[in-house]
Structures are given as structure tokens and as C-alpha cells.
Amino acid sequence: MARIIFFLGGLLLVQLVHSHHSTLGLYDEDRIVEIEGVVTSVRWGNPHPAYTVAVLDENEETVEWDVQGGGSVTTLRLRGVDRDVVKVGDRVRVAGESSTRGLPEMFASNFLLENGQEVVLGIDSEPRWVGGLEGGLFQSRLDETLIEDARQTADGIFRVWTVVLDDPVSFRLYRDNVSPLTESASEFKAQWDPRASPYLGCEPRGMPYLMTTPFPFEFVRRGNDMALRAELSDSQRLIHMGTEQPPSSESYSLLGYSTGRWEGNRLVVETDRIDATYFYGDGTPQSRSIRLVEHFTLNEQEDRLDYLLIITDPETFTETLEFSRYWTWRPEVRIEPFNCVE
Question: Which residue range forms the structural domain that includes residue 110?
């Protein structure tokens, strides 16, 4: 087993806060640490895979490091990485954000395997060592025959949609801090403690938070209506087609009450009756007054889905907000059980 190698000072890996908000307060993104050692345990599950790596310290004593993978199981699947890529007994080199608590732990962004291949973990992590290595990057390989066969049976919007890992426009809906907050919302956010966030573990996300995540989703038919099935927390939104407004008896919920209509190749969904405390994982709140209008627009080739989100919440924001992103269709991607472990 090799020693710990520290890199202090500037940020050596580009990993924006919004890509892993669930780690806020636990790891220092401005202090990158590298370790080398032997993997002694693997936990393959969401919200992040976790590993234990045995490392020799400066006193020649073995220290067990807790390594939280910087990407979800879903992100790794999109890169072609499964649970057998890093196994117990493997010697690895790992880079990631160091602990703010002074513990032997890190939020990992990159693995270097014994065969010289580099595994990029986070959704917007950059390759670290690949330039000088013969092994290159570990990447998925698509079967062109599978793609062509899938095109023949694809059904418009009713398929699985996923992010493009190398394009932040695809996976980061809120690319800037959400500002203009009302005075009461600003006060609420100022008191937010990230270490007490309900989203540190497996808590389901509400709307519109659900639509900001990098997890895949699919549209499925439900008789005359339709549903949006998201992999995150195994969530499912029922979209009532052709219904102008919810019945007066409809209660508030995390995902709210959604009605939809078609405008050509565009699906327009309006949602209200949402009861969720947080608008996003940075402590920004939202109120029960929030109203959403979503536009899902399918391109002519039917392999890209553009998204526009329009938000009004007069108790939280001083103006109407608009955000956009997109997803693409990859026929090998399926919605998998979330299998989250606290």
C-alpha cells in the first residue's frame, strides 16, 4: 500500500457545488487530496457508491479511508462503470475533496486503476491523470446495432431520457445562484445548515427540485393520461391530460398536481399544490404558492428533449424565473431501482 499524497491550494478539479450539494459542509472543494492503497470494502448504491481504502500513513501504520464516490450509480452507469470495475483487493489511486472534519475521508472524483485506466466519477469531474497514462479513460461503448433496432420501435416522447455528461447545459438546470429572493426567503436561507439538510441521505425530492437532478426519467402512458417515472427515489409524477384544473379536494404533496396538454410536438405541463420545503439543495426555500409551467419539446430526429421551466412563487421570488436544460435518448439506458442507502 502506498502513502497519502496531499495537494493544497487552488482547486485542481472542477466540481461545482451544484453537482454535489449533498456534501456541503462535509468536504472542502478547495483542498484536494490523493491517496493510494488497497480497496477493502465496496458499497454499491445511491446516493453515492462508497469504498474503504487501506492506506499507509507517514508512521507506516494502516489507516482505513472512507471514500464516498463523487457520482451516483446512475452517473457511473452512463460511463459504463459497474460495481465490478473497482473490487475488494484492487490497488487504486484516488483523488477527491478532503474532509472538513479532519477525518480520513474524502469525496472522490477520480479513480486510477491498476491497469492504468482512469475512472471519472462525478458528473462534471474532469480527467486528472489520463494525459500521461497509456490506459486512457474508462468509457462506455455503444452497440450501434442496438441503437438502430431501438429506433425502429421508439415511441415519440415515451422513452427514457438522460443527461449528456460532457455538457453542463444538459445536466445543470440552475447554472447560477437563484436570486431574486424576497426578504422572508432570504432570512430563511441565511439560517440554513447544510449538515442538517434532509437531502444528505435518501429523502425524496419535491417539485421542481426533482427536475434539476442528473438522473434519467421516462414518460409512460397511463390510459388517457401519462406519468413521468424518475429513477431518483423511484418517484412518479402523474400528468392528467386535458384537465384544466385539479379538483378542489386534491391535497398538497411533494410532487403536486400536474395537468398536461399537447402543443404540436411540445408537451406543456402545469403544476401546483406542491408542498416542499426546499426549492433546491442550497437552502433556497419555496412556498405553497409556487406554480410551475414546463415545456418538453421533442426535436425532429426524436433523440433530444428540450426543457423550459417557468416558476412563479411570490412568497419566495420577486420575479418570475425561467430555466432551461435538455436530455438525450440513449437506448441502452433503463430506469433502475434507486436502492438508496442512508
Answer: 4-132
